[in-house]
Amino acid sequence: MQRATSPTDVDDPEYFHKVVDCQWACPAHTPVPEYIRLIAQRRFTDAYMLNWESNVFPGILGRVCDRPCEPACRRGRIEEKPVAICRLKRVAADYRDDISDRLPEIPKEGNGKRVALLGAGPASLTVARDLLPLGYACTLFDKDPKAGGLMRTNIPSFRLPENVLDEEVYRIVDFGVEPRFGEEVTSLKAILDDDYDAVFVGTGAPKGKDLNIEGRRECSDNIQIGISFLTSVAFGHVDTIGERVVVIGGGNTAMDCCRTALRIGGKDVRVTVRSPRKDMKASDWEIEEAEQEGIPIYDNHSPKAFVRENGKFKGVLFEVMRAEYDEDGKRTLVSTGEEVLFECDDVLMAIGQDNAFDWIERDLGVEFESWGMPLVDKTTMMSTLPGVFFGGDSAWGPENIIVAVAHGHQAAISIDLHCRGEDLVQSRPAPGHSLISQKMGIHEWAYENDYASTGRVDVPHEDLAKSLKDLKVEVELGYDDQLAFDEAERCLNCDVQTVFTGPLCIECDACMDICPIDCINFIENAAEPELRQNLRVPALNTDQALYVSPPLKTGRIMAKDEDMCVHCGLCAERCPTGAWDMQKFTYVKTQAAKPCQVNLDAYVQWSKAG
Amino acid sequence: MSYIQKPKAFHPALKKNKLGLTRRDYEGAMSTLCAGCGHDSITAAIIEACFKLELPAHRLAKVSGIGCSSKAPTYFLSRSHGFNSVHGRMPSITTGANLANRDLVYLGVSGDGDTASIGLSQFCHAMRRQLNMTYIVMNNGCYGLTKGQFSATNDKASPSKKGESNLFEAIDLAQIAIQLGAGFVGRSFSGDKAQLVPLIEAAMSYNGFAFLDVVSPCVTFNNHPASTKSYDYVRGHNAVLDKLDFVPPEEEIEIDYAEGTTSDVELHGGAKIRLHKLDTGYDPTDADQAINTIRERLNAGEVTTGLLYFDGREQDLHETLGTSERPLNTLPLGELCPGSEALEPINDRFR
Fold first, then answer.
1. Which residues contact A65 (CB under 8 A, 6 or more apart)?
2. Is it the case that residue A167 has pLDDT exceeding 60?
3. Which of A16, A208, A525, B162 is 20 to 30 A from A3 in CA distance terms?
């Protein structure tokens, strides 16, 4: 017996949430299409506030976010290049007005609870932002003299100008945290002994990995760990480097290292990677930027030894590798036997980062996995010691800023529940959402449904010669308002959902005939794998849902492949009975403090009010 | 009717035919017909059929008269030849074009008003002459463009949307077509593309006059509960006489059928019509049986659909008249217009 695919439950907010690929992929679930529409309407401040409430650092993230939203963007599946979501976010930050009167009010009277936040990076700052409006007293510790964490120490200022960083970081510090900067925490016990109501560990993954190969010790004067190098440059302790620099590593830190080296004296800077180029960990756009600055990347180069000659450092000896793949596509790197020596003055090692928890005493009740990571609950962010929470890179290893922010939000909810003595799982707030028709007239929608066929708009760059001369000159200039508008129009409005009401359907085929993407089908039901194959265009991307109706009058079902829908609304325009409607879906992750989501709530509520 | 243009974007996995074209390449302008109009669905079926036939757009001439139906050719194959002619005069325009250039595929699109009233005589004579064309009537039983008055094909039992009764018997265009010698007669329903698309493919491959009466509900005026041309009525009273697949030349359908359940009819150009035996025992090559069956079912309130009649001789007007093998526009001027020396002996014959 053939099993039929069950009808889709569109009352479950997660169904339509998943259709909004960007928002679903964003760890903080920022309502991307909504803020892009606001940018198109030149409502930059409103767009900024939606962002600020949901991801806390729009100006920073608009420049250096890992942008998981972009690979997820539906536009990228239809025509290769996704919407430049990250750069549009920057536009909101660049062109907004003063927002001081739109920030949450911090109560003068505290609630009497004290929270220690260890490490002043994005995770801790998010916790502070979410808890301060509730009256918590937050003490923020960091070993560096200024707050910001790796956003300050590891991201060079030509990608993230200091004033942008300072503004968004110190906005939170100035909400009234008690700063304990330049103070390294060396004992969790000492903190716990201070009777905090909760402790949040957001100390990141601060230890750069080392490479113990031949000559490492002898040549140590010429070898630096990448993140330490970047930190020293950020704080002005280092402002020169040798002319010939070899960077070892293929991640984003390696890209930041080589480009920094090029700006402080490096002339012949090269990047070496052990793996084939396509397996490099760095984001495509960061590799691209490095190459545009003339930095060559040598892939399949595995470091073998640091070489000295006549008592002087000479360079790095590499073994040239070749990738071999077995039947399952599993890769092994094998030596080709060839060796090359890259002569150089300095080596920057950027081959990964580790956590460092030697300051957490093992008898406090915070349990660790065998490989040295704390046991942290995925939902609550709490460790095995009630009241001690982890987030950001220190929870499960190196991630990125937006993940740290998402952790921070969840940790703040947990800390608040913990301090109020409520259950951390049962009492977690449900997300806010609404689903509202966008129909305004026969052919009028409350959103711009026309499809803009333009390609992705390039971001203007500063003149290369000028930007290479000064470490502090920002490389990307950002979109101006016209370019931003053109790019914003590429957004497919995936939050405006195609909602189908089966009983109204007369099965006239109008929607199926007009759909430019052939995603609508009226078809015999079958088990999902078979149903996917039977569609007008087989739905082979199983990451994307099928929207399946209950049986219609003829016994057939409507099955829509959500994968490629461009949300143009033509199905609804062509529907004679209103069985299809375009409805805006809003979804907002509820946060610890209501005052931190005034604009997000308004977005859900206003949409509800129509 | 829609204001935005249909986005040019299409599914990256959309199938291409041997010409390297997708179905989207066979589309036309955006329809301005009412939302849910059956005509748009027939348009989509024509697009699908032309895509499957791998027809190069410039080999097709689409001709129409006046009415909602006759607007439809604008909505498909925008790169084909087209002539939106005078009310009811589509057949004579097509006759002229066809006689001048026999190499094009002619697709006439008409409606029940355009064919069964003002153009009835033209329709009859084109069939009688076996003009090589496909003649599709988008049949909704009413004049949609002038607020839904009854047309001559509306069943007597089918009142208007406001309840006014219809005083006259309907003209059944399919019966007329069989009687007057159309070589290929089919009937289908805009809401059943599985049946309609292969019928259009076969009709367009038929050498001679191929007629398709396609019931096409008018959502605005004739889709009410008492109408016999509504989506619900046709679905509920559809007497499918036979089922067919269209097999293009030099191609086989991969699906295996049990022996004896199908029979192939080979067409002029090498394509095949594969008929699947239904328990109706219907034989579409028998004109008398065809007319009897259609009448019986009609009396029972049913709409007969499928390939109703098929004449294997496929003799078209050019053969009957012994006209030039080549289109006139390819003849050298001396041949096309041989001059007064050639005219003299002809005139002499009448002196």
1. A86, A89, A400, A401, A402
2. yes
3. A16
